[in-house]
Each structure stands twice: as structure tokens, then as C-alpha cells.
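Fold this complex.
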Amino acid sequence: MNWRAIWTIYRSEMARTFRTLVQSLVAPIISTSLYFVVFGTAIGSRIETVEGIDYGAFIVPGLIMLTVLMQSISNASFGIYFPKFIGTIYEVLSAPVSFLEVVIGYVGAAATKSLMIGLVIYVTANLFVTLPVKHPFAALGFLVLTCVSFALFGFIIGIWAKNFEQLQLVPLLVINPLVFLGGAFYSISMLPPVWQTITLFNPVVYLISGFRWSFFGTADVGVGLSLAAIGVFTGACLLAIWWIFRTGWRIRS
Amino acid sequence: MAAIVSVENLRKVYDSGFEALKGVDLEIREGEILALLGPNGAGKTTLISTICGITRPTSGRVTVAGHDVVTDYRASRRLIGLVPQEITLEPFTKVMVAARFTRGLFGKAPDDAYIERLLRQLSLWDKREAMTKELSGGMKRRVLIAKALAHQPRILFLDEPTAGVDVDLRKSMWEVVEALRADGVTIILTTHYIEEAEAIADRIAVINGGRILLVEEKDRLMRRMGRKELTIELQCPIDAIPETLAAFELVRGEDGQTLTYSYDRAAERTGIVTLLSALSEAGLVLRDLQTRQNSLEDIFVGLVREEA
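Structure:
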């Protein structure tokens, strides 16, 4: 393993993050606060509780997941797309590094950034509602796993994308609906039976459900199933990335 | 001298079906400066990219100091530094940071003293804290060289290092190359500026249409293929070349005032003495004489045209 190369990529990517730290953090804080004002206060005051949990608190895990998912994808996809776009990727391609090292460097940095944002949102949420975390280690585990797996997914999008439009396309067309229909703002038991079944094909449901369980101890689907779903998703992303580097798809001619 | 890079029957067919390299054989000797000469689209960049690991070979084999560039890529790439043709730099990165990055990427322990020496040598030390986007084109190119040398490679590839660079900078670039050679670094440069190859290379390889047309010592190549021209300026213009001079195959200048005679400098008899006496017999009075060595450019154009 070329650990020094991994560390070099990671540090360089993190430096880019810290150069734009204010933008990176302020945007999620503002949007989280807006969600609280709209859903937590305006609408939430009429809903009161979902499954015995105060609605304002109920939406927090989903809200964190929503931002973390989006951030992981956009950080990682931009992180690898940018050197491809400006041409500096030649350096990584001609360096004595394996695909695994490149992925750990880029994805590690993207996941770190979204993890930081996730924690910031958690702290911000505490200003609006009281938020006990029943299983803190499980919560952290779910959060880290989500950051990593969706950063992997973002990395794939970054390699696949041929222009900036495509870079925006997947998050906008696929991830956004999946997150909104993934139970971020409601319990899936509130849906009609048919939609409950359909929802079970949405991988995001398992993430949010598992994450919510670690806060409140209740879940839409079993925790084991949630973990398995993230595991499968991570595995699929790793497999895709392994294939990309083996064939040089869209990066090495 | 032993070969440090060895290319055997290398073929590269791109996905589009374009065959960029059609069975290239090339040995690059340790410590030399090899100029890879060829017109646009000849396969220069593809050849370099394959040796550096950016492009995958379709068939054939490339080894760097005995390490196969595909199966043993870590060992081979560690020895190589690459300066790409296009100026590609992260715009918001500082010069010093950019050099450190490459060094780390190649797995070398940080050594700021070395980076400082390198930046000073390339006249970049004053700009070490500047962001690369603030630099002039020539400086950016030197940053690329600094990055390529940051991990102390034994082989340096310069892909058209002086394209679009002014004369002063080109000269200073050549000095850098000379200094590197003195340090024992093997240098391969692609160029279509013949004067560049002529000025600094030890050996010249000419590539066109994906094939190496020749590889030869520069001096020998110039001697072997270099013809000389003798230009004779006459006192009075003439309308036609006299019959008695037909054997010399002279070329009359447009104004009728000059005659050009080409000859092989390496030949036993150049025929100059005979020509001069024949001229005076024909009653032509000379005003001035001038000889000119054929440049590599002429050789190169001749070769490429022959190929076509």
C-alpha cells in the first residue's frame, strides 16, 4: 500500500474543503433551520407526535440523512470530476498508486466532509428540539456507513459524468425523490398498504429507518435489515469501482 | 549504455478504431536526451502516455529499468516524471503545495529542502506562495516541470515543453534540461520544433503515422543525411544556365543573380573546385559565395514526405 499517496490525496482534498469551509457549512445549517421552521414548527405543531415521538424530533434523523446523502454524492463526484475536467487526473493515472488507494483518498475525504456536516446539523437541531440519542454508537456507525457508501456512489457518478449537467443529473433525478419518499418526514406506516410495499424497494428507507432507530429505538424496518441494505449497497459500489479501474472506463484510454 | 526504457512491438488501437501506434520498437539509453520528432498526430503523445501508464497498450511490451509498465507499474512509474503537453494545474493550489502533492503521490517522504532547491533552479522560489492561476504561461509550465521532478525521477518525459513559449524562456528551459542531464536524468522530449532537437538532443527518433522511421545519433544523422548547399552570387544576372554547367545540376535563383549547388559534405570529392573553374570558363564573374548545412528540419521534412 502506498499510504503516503492516500494521505496526500486525502489531505489535498480536505484542504479544498477547508478553503470553502464557510460555504460548505453555512448552506446546510440554513436549509436545516428552514426545514425546522416549516416542518417542525408550522406543520409539526398540528401533527404533534409520530409513533409517540415529537414530530420536530422525529424528522431530525431523516433530515441529517438527507443532507449527508446529498453532500456525500456531490463532494465525491465533484472531487474526482474536477481533476478529470481540468486534466490534472494525468498525475494520479501516472503515479504508482492502485485504484484502491485513489478511492480511499478521494472517497475518504468526501465522506469526512459530509460527516462533519452531519454532525453540524445534529448540533443545530439541538437548538430547536430536545434530541436524545438512544444508541449513540449505532447512530455514529450508521452515519459513517452512509457517508462512505454514498461517497463511493458519488465517485462513480463523477467518473461517469462527461459534463457538469450529468454531474447534477443523478442527485436531482434519482436521489432527491428517493430521499423524499424514503420516510424522512413521515413513518412509512402512515402510507396506504400498496405504497408501503413499493417503498420497501427504496434503499433510502432502510438507511433512514436504521438511523432513526438509533435515536428513538423504533424503526419502520428491522435494524439488521437496514444494516444489510447498506452493506449490499456499499458492496455494489465497490464492485462497480473495481470494474471501472480494471477496465479504465472513462478515465484511462 | 544500457537501455533504461525498452519498447517492444508496441501497438495501440483506440476504442474509436484509430491505430495510433503500429508496432513501435524503441530503446532509450540511460542518461541520454532523446528527441522524439514528428508532426501532429504522429503518435508521440500516445507513445509517452503508454510508457507512463496513462494509456494501456493494445499489444506489445514496455519496460522501465526492467519493470513491466502494466504488471509492475508501481516500480516503473516511481522512476518516471511526466510534463504533459497541456498546462493542467489546479488553479487554487500554491506552487509549493503543488510540488509537495506530487512528491507525496509518488510515495516519497516530504523533503522541503529538495523542493526548495528545485524551485530555485526553476526560478519559482519567489512564487512559491502564489496560486498557480496567478502565474504566467511560462511559469505554469515550469511549475509542471517542478511537479514532475518533485519525486526525483530518473527519467523525465517532456511532452512539447516549449510549445507556445517565448524564445528567452525556451533557452532557459534548455538550460534546465542540460542541468538535469548533468545529474544523470534521462530525458525524452517530444517536439515539432526541429531547432530544439538540434540544440539539445543526443539522439533523434522520428515518428510518423504510428511508426518509428529512424533512431540515430543526432550528429551522425546530420552527417549522414545532411547535404550542404553552396550559393553563388553572380556579378551580373543570367537568363539561363550555360550548357557547359549542366552536369552540376545548378538551380538558378529567381532574379538570375544566384546559383545554388548542393553537394554531400561527407563525399570524397565535393566538386566545388571543378565547379568554380567551370564557372570562370563559362565567363561568369562571382561576387560572393555562401555555404549552408542542411538543418534537421530539411531531413525531417524529407523523411516524412518519403513516408507519405
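The CA atoms of residues 192 and 198 of chain A lie 10 Å apart.
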